[in-house]
Design goal:
single chain, 148 residues, mainly alpha, globular
Length: 148
């Protein structure tokens, strides 16, 4: 990985951490670092493309949030995880951190707007800035993969 790759990842995670520190509604979630790593190291893979990242992550977090209206805890988290896996595979938006994000609302209670106020902005920021970096820097791998 090149120095700009590390700088990009540090900047994105730093911005989210700063937003958390300033109580702007965004906060760091471990799957966010996984998503950035997947985009950087597997830019040609279908699971790193904008559709699975943005839609998959939002759907996964939304499913977890939906189940949080019924209950909380590890049992409900397992159910949400399985439902999220089925959903993202069915809509062809498989992105592993999306499945992990379904657990978060049931275990840590981030609030009812988690999917739309935290996950969606992060996913859009990650994919759009990766696309911009690939156009600005020769050392950056092409992203997203061109549609056929």
């Amino acid at each position: 990985m090149s120095l700009p790759s590390y700088a990009w990842m540090a900047t994105i995670l730093g911005l989210v951490a700063l937003a958390e520190h300033n109580r702007l509604g965004l906060f760091l979630v471990p799957p966010f670092a996984a998503t950035l790593t997947i985009i950087l190291l597997l830019p040609d893979a279908s699971l790193s493309q904008p559709y699975p990242v943005v839609i998959g992550m939002t759907v996964g977090a939304g499913i977890g949030t939906g189940f949080s209206f019924v209950g909380h805890g590890p049992g409900w988290a397992v159910v949400a995880c399985l439902v999220a896996l089925f959903a993202v595979v069915t809509i062809r938006a498989f992105h592993p951190p999306a499945v992990a994000l379904s657990l978060y609302p049931l275990l840590l209670h981030p609030g009812i707007w988690f999917a739309l106020a935290v996950v969606l902005p992060f996913a859009i920021l990650a994919t759009s800035t990766a696309s911009l970096m690939s156009r600005l820097l020769r050392s950056w791998p092409p992203y997203p993969k061109p549609l056929r």
